[in-house]
Amino acid sequence: MEQIVDISSDGRHLSRDRGFLKVEADGAEVGRVPLDRIAAVILHGHGTTWTASLMVELARRGALTVLCGRNHAPVALLWPIEGHHAQGGRMQAQWAASRPAMKQAWKMIVQSKIMMQAAALRSVGEPDAPVSILARSVRSGDPANIEAQAARRYWPLMMGKDFRRDVGGGGANGLLNYGYTVLRAATARAVIGAGLHPTIGLHHRAQGNSFALADDLMEPFRPLVDLAARRIAREAGPDVTSEAKQALARIIAFDMEVDGVTTPVSGMLSRLALSLARSFESGRMELGLPKPPAPLRLMELGR
User: Fold this and answer.
1) Region 143-171: what's the mean pLDDT?
2) Using CA atoms, how far apart are residues 22 and 221, in angstroms rounded to an integer?
3) Exposed, middle or buried by CB within 10 Å (0-12, 13-18, 19+), for 117?
4) What would the pLDDT profile of 173-216 be if each residue is shown by its tens digit?
5) Residues whose CB is less than 8 angstroms from the CB of residue 70 and which lie 6 or more positions away in sequence, other chains included
6) DSSP per-residue codes, 36-86
7) DSSP labels for 130-153?
8) What is the mean pLDDT of residues 89-96?
9) Which of 294, 215, 214 is nearest to 254 (CA)?
10) What tens digit of pLDDT does each residue of 48-74 get?
């Protein structure tokens, strides 16, 4: 099973030791993780140091390194130069994709996200109709910004009427920031592994965003983070503790289903990225989007 390694304590030193990532504090070993099991390393702690050989070995395995700010949102990512064996051809197909194809893909992603939001609301006993009814109104490229309309209805039901989603805000926002960081890292890894360029997005196209495509493809999975953050905030408080981080990091191992196949979120992201790569090559958008899990399954998130 792939792991997200979080380094949040100050003064840690990271190095490679015979196929392991070794963590030391004051010269003494405090932990180690097999390199082959690492999907991403997330760094928060002040004074953290690492060896170049460790970074090289992580990159060779396709694992990302994410640097986070005080609000638990990512500020930089290290990703490998070498990707999928068919990377050149797939990137050319990605660059050559038509705007109608990009818009059609974004429509499918927005619809999938809205249906996942509706399923998340059902799992916590909230009415889903105000959100799910909007899915049928999404058109190619989402020109009416139905995604934002759904969000305005969704957040008060999911997090409470006084909640405001704000990256720099307090309360559960820190939990959401960290959960989305985990999800973004896993998605970026899937994008690179599929031979696609993460900068070329379907919808997210802000200058300076090196992971626009990851931000696009992670959208249907965001409600999983929302559910976990909601549970943690209500049961243990909104602080981003080590226990909260562990619960949020487990999201990539949460099982989902598509086309009768059950696979963890990390595998589902790889499947989605690969389906997009093949769609660029064929010219037909056929995305492997997730099927919303049953309410009882969704209730397991955040434990």
Assistant:
1) 94
2) 31
3) buried
4) 999 999 999 999 899 888 888 888 888 999 977 656 778 999 99
5) none
6) GGEEEEEE--TT-EE-HHHHHHHHHTT-EEEEE-TTS-EEEEE--S---TT
7) HHHTTGGG--TT-TT-HHHHHHHH
8) 90
9) 294
10) 999 999 999 998 888 889 888 777 777
Residues 11-19, mean pLDDT to the nearest whole number: 95
Single-letter amino acid code for the residue at 253: A
Instruction: Give the pair of three-digit tokens for residue 157.
Output: 């039901």
pLDDT at 19: 94
Residue 162 DSSP SS3? coil
With 70 as the cut, is the pLDDT of residue 286 above it?
yes
DSSP letter assigned to residue 161? T
The confidence score (pLDDT) of residue 104 equals 97
Based on the number of CB atoms within 10 Å of its own CB, is 141 exposed (0-12), middle (13-18) or buried (19 or more)?
middle
Pairing of strands 12-17, 49-50: parallel
Q: Could you give the CA distance from residue 86 to residue 8 in angstroms, rounded to a whole number?
A: 36
Going by their DSSP bridges, the two strands 74-78 and 261-264 should be labelled as unpaired
- The pTM assigned to this predicted structure is 0.85
Tens of pLDDT along 75-87? 887 877 665 556 6
DSSP state of 164: -
The pLDDT of residue 1: 61
Pairing of strands 49-50, 64-68: unpaired
DSSP assignment of 94-132 equals HHH--HHHHHHHHHHHHHHHHHHHHHHHHHTT---HHHH
The whole-angstrom separation of Cα 192 and Cα 252 is: 17
Q: Walk me through the domains of the chain, giving residue ranges and CATH numbers.
A: 3-61 (3.100.10.20), 87-298 (1.20.120.920)
Tell how strand 38-43 and strand 3-7 pair up. Answer: parallel
